[in-house]
Design brief:
67% helix
Length: 103
């Protein structure tokens, strides 16, 4: 009776080749994942910078409105109108704020 044995040298190279293929697949999938995260982060940063620009424009508009409202107001005239007196030794309120937000 003839017994045929498979070539045992092939089994020696199978494990490293499968391991390298698995590492390559893991690296490829993680590369795509990290690229996707990078693109999402860039889009989020672009959206936030656009929001900052719109808020800066709105802030400038509000400052312009405030300055136009206060343009004709004189401090001396306001003090004379309401008979205010300048305090020589003002005492300011001090307090310690309790933070309700925990980081």
């Amino acid at each position: 009776m003839t017994v045929i044995e498979p070539n045992k040298q092939n089994s020696f190279w199978v494990l490293p080749i499968v391991g390298m293929a698995a590492i390559f697949i893991i690296l490829a999938v993680s590369g795509v994942y990290f690229y996707n995260q990078n693109v999402e982060l860039r889009h989020a940063a672009a959206d936030l910078s656009q929001k900052v620009e719109t808020l800066q424009v709105a802030n400038a508009e509000y400052k312009n409105k405030l300055y136009t409202l206060l343009e004709g107001v004189s401090v001396e005239a306001f003090v004379a109108k309401y008979q205010l007196v300048k305090e020589k030794n003002p005492q300011y309120l001090e307090g310690k704020a309790i933070s309700l937000i925990h980081y």
